[in-house]
Amino acid sequence: MTSPAQVRALAMALPEAYERPHRRQPTFWVHERIFCIMPSGEDHITVKLDRDDQLNMIEGHPGAVRPARLYSHHGWTYVDPAVCDDDLMALLLRLAWTHVAPKRLSRGSDRPKA
How would residue 42 be classed by pLDDT, with cut points 50, 70 and 90? Predict the structure, then answer.
């Protein structure tokens, strides 16, 4: 189980990520693009995945990952933090961040720090 505080910490640990409300919801951004939304009063978070990543994660984690009600064909995906461990949540957030982050930034984020 991943708590909202843990989701926030994992999202904010990604390079140049920041939190800013969008439609009165806590939302995580990188370079003016949303990669995660934490809807108030819902049992899920919403992430923006590459379509192949989305389909693979839905197939591999059917209890935790499902297509969003709206715009799932654009990669919007629901994730249930109650059934995700921290490793899966970190992976999903990293994939979402990578999908929207500038390529120069996402390429550099996998390099070991000197």
Answer: confident
Which strand (E) or helix (H) includes residue 52?
helix 51-60
Q: Quote the DSSP letter at residue 22.
A: B
Question: Going from the N-terminus, what domains does the chain have, and what CATH number goes with each?
Answer: 4-104 (3.90.1150.30)
Q: Give residue 111's pLDDT.
A: 47
DSSP state of 81: G
Cα–Cα nearest to 106, from 14, 8, 33, 10: 14
Q: How far apart are CA 66 and CA 69, in angstroms?
A: 9
pLDDT of residue 109: 58
pLDDT at 68: 94
Region of residue 36 (left: phi > 0; alpha: psi -120 to 50; beta: else): beta
CB 96 within 8 A of CB 87: no
- Both ends of the chain: CA-CA distance in Å? 33
**Which residues sit opposite 48 in a β-bridge?**
76
6, 89 contact by CB (below 8 A)? yes
